[in-house]
Amino acid sequence: MLSLSAKIQDAFNEPACENNRSKDAEARKKGCSKPPTPGAAAGGCAFDGAKVVLQPITDVAHLVHAPLACEGNSWDNRGTASSGPMLWRTSFTTDLTELDVVMGHSERKLFKAIREINEAYAPPAIFVYATCVTALIGDDIEAVCKRAAEKFGLPVVPIDAPGFVGSKNLGNKLAGEALLDHVIGTVEPDDAGPRDINILGEFNLSGEFWLVRPLLDKLGIRVRACIPGDARYLDIATAHRARAAMMVCSTALINLARKMEERWDIPFFEGSFYGVTDTSEALRQIVELVVKKGAEPELISRTEALIAAEEAKAWRRLEAYRPRLQGKRVLLNTGGVKSWSIVHALTELGMEIVGTSIKKSTVDDRERIKQILKNENHMYETMTPRELYSSLAEQNADIMLSGGRTQFIALKAKMPWLDINQERHHAYAGYEGMVELARQIDLAIHNPIWEQVREPAPWEEPLAGQERSGEESASILNLSGKTARHVGEC
């Protein structure tokens, strides 16, 4: 089994990236993303990234081997949803103290915690997460997990992704490596079929994959494993018997998709369930792959019939929103797969993209954006809050779509804002999700509150029948400016 340093090196040498293949051997090792400088793991550490990928496995006990703060800061960090088991919502930690570290009790405390979880909850598996503290003091969690698995007769999986080794994205990939090393392929299913597929990099945010699964059910296509959204341990353990796979977020789990193709001959493609056209294209590509792997050819005609019916229904419902959204200008501040998939969905509504961030996007993601926008000036790597604030006015945007951390920039600019990241409360995937996205954008843009908040404040208007002198106006404007700067600094 590879050491942690070897896994990190391997994560940045990703041959599944089309652009990476054309590089020389030395440049290829750098991969599509760069390792961070020490202390600069902005946006989350490797431990956080591993937890993001694995915690949505709903029937597993997730045990964080660390002082209490590590689990407190990472628990419930995504708006994923479960259709069954809720054990993943229970927080487990060894809660190490200074005394445990100094006296060398930490490994014994970990073994005891595994035993207590097994006795109290009897989960199908326990995932144990290394963290900065336990990695720095040299705890051998792999040895402890191996001994516990033998003692208690259940899988105990070590997740060796301490925070200091790199960024959240690296943690995503190390989590995928842990699944390959310890979970996938450990159980043989007795019901494998020619229409079994895996969905990789789908997190079921706000339950949005539940809007897509019924479409696959109508075609008789079974999702053997959705990794990680609403997953079960046994589903993932048997995922190696799927016939094809769809990659939703290559930034997170491209290494998992590639290695499953190499080991078990599971072909994959990267697609999106955001927007009418992309959802239809994803269904076509899924069916094309499973037919090539042995499913009946008539599945293609059934898929086209389903697409025609669903598209007609979706466009009919979207007609109510298209006139109200046509030509509206959007600033999109997100990243990864959403940097191009949401862009495509918005252009279908007739909206104009005045800017989209590409901070967490791969080279392939950026190429897709270029094809959609036809203007590289609308792509930006990153913006400071001040630059985002200025861009909203300079680009004459009508709405900003982003995550919760930047919502107050839009609100300060008296601009409609809609949450498009993982904290959102609405599902936007599939045909139903596209209608919901249009509805939420329409509600945000045409909310009457914006007319009210953009009105001049009472102290900015002259009294009836009076005109202020230039000196008085300057004084009031200066006071208003000071107030605005003071609010901004807060």
Automatic annotation (TrEMBL):
<feature type="domain" description="Nitrogenase/oxidoreductase component 1">
    <location>
        <begin position="45"/>
        <end position="443"/>
    </location>
</feature>
<dbReference type="InterPro" id="IPR049939">
    <property type="entry name" value="NifE-like"/>
</dbReference>
<keyword id="KW-0535">Nitrogen fixation</keyword>
<feature type="region of interest" description="Disordered">
    <location>
        <begin position="461"/>
        <end position="490"/>
    </location>
</feature>
<dbReference type="InterPro" id="IPR000510">
    <property type="entry name" value="Nase/OxRdtase_comp1"/>
</dbReference>
<feature type="region of interest" description="Disordered">
    <location>
        <begin position="15"/>
        <end position="35"/>
    </location>
</feature>
<dbReference type="InterPro" id="IPR005973">
    <property type="entry name" value="NifE"/>
</dbReference>
<comment type="pathway">
    <text>Cofactor biosynthesis; Fe-Mo cofactor biosynthesis.</text>
</comment>
<feature type="compositionally biased region" description="Basic and acidic residues">
    <location>
        <begin position="20"/>
        <end position="29"/>
    </location>
</feature>
<dbReference type="InterPro" id="IPR000318">
    <property type="entry name" value="Nase_comp1_CS"/>
</dbReference>
<comment type="similarity">
    <text>Belongs to the NifD/NifK/NifE/NifN family.</text>
</comment>
<protein>
    <recommendedName>
        <fullName>Nitrogenase iron-molybdenum cofactor biosynthesis protein NifE</fullName>
    </recommendedName>
</protein>
<comment type="function">
    <text>This protein may play a role in the biosynthesis of the prosthetic group of nitrogenase (FeMo cofactor).</text>
</comment>
<keyword id="KW-0614">Plasmid</keyword>
<dbReference type="Pfam" id="PF00148">
    <property type="entry name" value="Oxidored_nitro"/>
</dbReference>
